Amino acid sequence: MRSPFLPRVRRDDASAPVKSYFNDVRFAHGHAFISDSGLGAIVVVDLDTGKVRRLLDGHASTLVEPGIEPMIGGRPWKFPNGKTPQVHVGGFVIDHQGEQVYYKPLVGRTLYRVPIAALLDESLAAAVLGD
What we know:
This protein has 131 residues and is mainly β.
C-alpha cells in the first residue's frame, strides 16, 4: 500500500529506485525526512507540493561501515547463506528543536548529523551535503 504522504513517488523514480527500503520517517517544517535503509540515502518530501529530493545517496555516512559485524544475542547476525545483512541508514531522529537530523547506518558505530536547513536548501547540490 502506498503511503499517503508520498503520492507522487513510484518505485521507478530516481527518488525511490529498485532496492530502496524506506525505513524511518520523521516530520518537521512541512517535510517528511525518510531513511532509505536499502540503498543508503535520505529522502526529503515537501508535504505541500509533493516534491521529492534524494540526498546523501550512497554517501559513506548513509552506508554500512566496513568491517562491522552486527551481533544479536551475542551471535553474529547472518543470513542462512552466511552473508551479513547490509542495512544502511537506519537510526534516524530529529532533535527537539527541529534543527538537526541525526542518523547512522544500522550496521555501523558512527552517529552523524546534518542541519535540516541544509537538507531543505535546494541551492545546495546534493553532493555538497556530505562535505
